Amino acid sequence: MSTDLLAPVRARFDLPNEDPRKIFAVAVALCLVCSVLVTATAVTLRPLQERNAAQALRREVVQVSGLGGRGMDLDAAFRQIETRLVDLDSGELVEAADPDTYSYRDAGNDPARSSALVEDPAGIRRRPDLMPVYLVRQQGRLRRVILPVYGQGLWSTMHGLLAVAPDGRTAKALTFYEQRETAGLGSEVASRKWLGQWTGKTLIAPDGEPVIAVAKGNVEPASPNADRRVDGLSGATLTSNGVTNLMQFWLGERGYGPFLARLNAL
């Protein structure tokens, strides 16, 4: 029976090379073989890619943690950082899942683990119910908390880490470790010089409202809002707006706002 099924296939390949039917059959066969090889390669490499991504994220977390120096071992530094999950609605730390394997990206695509957004300044469409946070303690005291943040820029979803002081209102460090904004313009969102401006900036007003924003142009040191403004990215207005929007969202009541208000209890 299998021989009968293969007979039409063999017949096609027995045709002269210039016959369109044979050309089409060869093309289809090549596509099938290539698709199988690509799929097998992707499945085989996925665990390695996931490990590399996890290691890269650890490196970024340590970078904004304020721990150690260049010579410090990455794993040793990361072991000093406590990874937890926070329920964004209540602002409470929860034990609902393993924080070391939890993916907010997967959760954001799962209607059972995320919420659709009516007002969506960050352009993320759905907000995960839980988000990871990284707590940095020294001698038993909370020194800073690191918050994953993300939102839409001009061309891409920008993923970053915002380190906040124990007061829940002051920026300690910021990094954008994943973005595909315009090279030489919006891509400066990941430059050390621009990110260095964030240290010490006021993120949230005493009444709990997010106040940090990227300015249109340069910030004058003597201006009334200088402590809550960062220089705009030259030639990248939409990327700059994207940073402002994602910060306003993640620091607000739908983001980490309730959690940051409870920091003094940690």
Based on CA atoms alone, the radius of gyration comes out at 25 Å
Mean pLDDT across all residues, rounded?
89
Distance between the termini: 71 Å
Shape: elongated
Oligomer description: single chain
Q: Pairing-aware structural class of the strands and helices?
A: alpha+beta
- One letter per element, helices H and strands E, the order comes to HHHEEHEEEEEEHEEHH
What's the structural domain tally? 2
Structure, described:
This protein is of the alpha+beta class and 266 residues long. It has 2 domains: 1-70; 80-265, no CATH class. The chain has helices spanning 2-13, 20-65, 74-79, 104-108, 192-195, 237-250, 257-260; strands at residues 81-87, 92-94, 114-116, 126-128, 130-138, 141-152, 157-164, 171-178, 213-214, 229-230. The protein has a 6-stranded antiparallel beta sheet. Strands 3-4 form a two-stranded antiparallel sheet. The model has no long low-confidence stretch (mean pLDDT 89).
